[in-house]
Amino acid sequence: MNHGFETLAIHAGQEPDPYTGAVVPPIYAVSTYKQDGVGGLRAGYEYSRSANPTRTALEEALAAVEGGVRGLAFASGLAAEDTLLRAVCKPGDHVVIPNDAYGGTYRLFARVLEEWGVTFDPVPLGDVDAVRAAMRPQTRAIWVETPTNPLLNVADVAALADVAHDAGALLVVDNTFASPYLQQPLGLGADVVVHSTTKYVGGHSDVVGGALVTRSADLGERLAYHQNAMGAVAGPFDAWLTLRGLKTLGIRMDRHCDNAERVADLLLSHPKVVQVLYPGLPEHPGHEVAAKQMRRFGGMVSFRVEGGEEAAVAVCDRARLFTLGESLGGVESLIEHPGRMTHASAAGSPLEVPADLVRLSVGIESIDDLLADLSQALG
Ligand SMILES: *Cc1c(COP(=O)(O)O)cnc(C)c1O
């Protein structure tokens, strides 16, 4: 379908049900399918770990909105990551990861994959030369997040795709923070996009899920084989909720961006704020690259508070409308202290985050209410 983003989000993979005309793909709560004679599968469905029509609808929609050829839906973002890495890496292989990777991604490399002989190097991905210098003959992939969590650093996807491909490696982009509405890495040269659909794609803090989308059919087929062989698939209820969220991704993201821009402005002019991290600000070191590869700058804003860790924790505690909690990307605004919450497991590692840092997932509530709450929380 050669359509605009919102049209694809609402219609791709979501033809009215051929049997009833139901406008929305039904939840196929079923494990197995009647065969018309041995091996006579209807529409290819055999067993729901291998394929389920509700999941297929989500997978086709995700492939369409990322501009890819194959989408695969998983039980969580980390299940998607694990499946990808075990499909493309073997013992002795090496991966370059961001030096401020999502904590769970870092843990997967450091505590799980390393045990299986896959090594990795954390590198500042904003520095293309540093990434090139970290490449080894055994490097199978460069793992990119942009913007990163929680420091909102930006990496140049097209430049890193060249570095990866020159070395015969894959470029993987975790596109969770931007969402496919704001950034489409496959069009910039990435081979695989990873999502925690738990975040913006689902968008309502009511379902955990993950996805992979590939640019090539071959790699898609290999990953689909592993998806079935390893079995960490999205169930039909979760796939349905995620698909429901995806339909409104575009309008939600525009409001997230509108609100985040206003929040960043308020923080910039606040005497208790030492630094504001938001790629939309012209002084952000990744601003130009972000402007080149993103439609807008997203709904995540981090900032550092005068007075150190205690002051940052106090801001989190005083917030009312911003709910104190982990995760991000839902319609409701969240606030958290990465050092003690989402990134506590990175303490003492190269991925440790500043103690005076506060992270906001700016939701789509009325902006005046959000600004008032932040002002009172800052005191
Ligand atoms: C949350 C998150 C993940 C992991 O996804 P889950 O759905 O929680 O397993 C991976 N990458 C990023 C950037 C995330 O924010």
UniProtKB/TrEMBL annotation:
The family classification in the record reads: Belongs to the trans-sulfuration enzymes family.
User: What is the residue range of the signal peptide feature?
Assistant: none
**Which co-factors does it depend on?**
pyridoxal 5'-phosphate
Kindly list the organism's lineage. Bacteria, Bacillati, Actinomycetota, Actinomycetes, Streptosporangiales
* Protein's organism: Microbispora amethystogenes
User: Do the record's keywords include Thylakoid?
Assistant: no
In terms of PROSITE patterns, this protein maps to:
CYS_MET_METAB_PP
Name assigned to this protein? Cystathionine gamma-synthase
- Print the keywords alphabetically: Pyridoxal phosphate
Name a Pfam family for this protein. Cys_Met_Meta_PP
